[in-house]
Design brief:
Radius of gyration: 14 Å
Shape: globular
Helix content: 25-40%
Strand order of the largest sheet: 1-2-3-4-6-5
Strand content: 15-25%
Largest sheet: 6 strands, antiparallel
Structural class: alpha+beta
Number of strands: 6
């Protein structure tokens, strides 16, 4: 059985996946990494320098995905009122944290919730 990737490797995999989506760019407001499309954040990656626990925050509008994300160890609705809009904060350093593949699926869902229809069509090959 393959050894699970550590939190930093999982964070980097999600970051690379998100940056591969059409029109996605990385910016560093507040000294934290965020991935944006059309000037709007779809993944908060926080800081990766070891000063804070690793985690990410995503917008999950699909009720099933949102509920599933909240069952992750330590997951909670995002602060600053973002939780009311479907944003979920998912820690990566908890035992049994979600695997990178699932987090990439959630990053794509968050992208689809934020991105313009034109870029979603490009993602879908249209």
């Amino acid at each position: 059985m393959a050894k699970a990737a550590g939190p930093a490797a999982v964070r980097e995999r999600v970051r690379a996946f998100a940056l591969g989506l059409p029109g996605a760019v990385e910016e560093f407001p507040w000294g934290e990494s965020v991935i944006k499309v059309n000037k709007k954040v779809f993944v908060f990656l926080g800081v990766g320098d070891g000063s804070h626990p690793l985690g990410l925050t995503l917008k999950l509008k699909d009720p099933e995905a949102h509920a599933h994300a909240l069952t992750s160890p330590g997951a909670k609705p995002a602060g600053y009122g973002l939780g009311r809009s479907g944003w979920v904060q998912v820690p990566l350093e908890e035992k049994d944290a979600p695997p990178a593949d699932l987090l990439c699926d959630w990053a794509e869902e968050s992208y689809r919730a934020i991105a313009p229809k034109k870029l979603i069509a490009e993602l879908d090959g249209g």
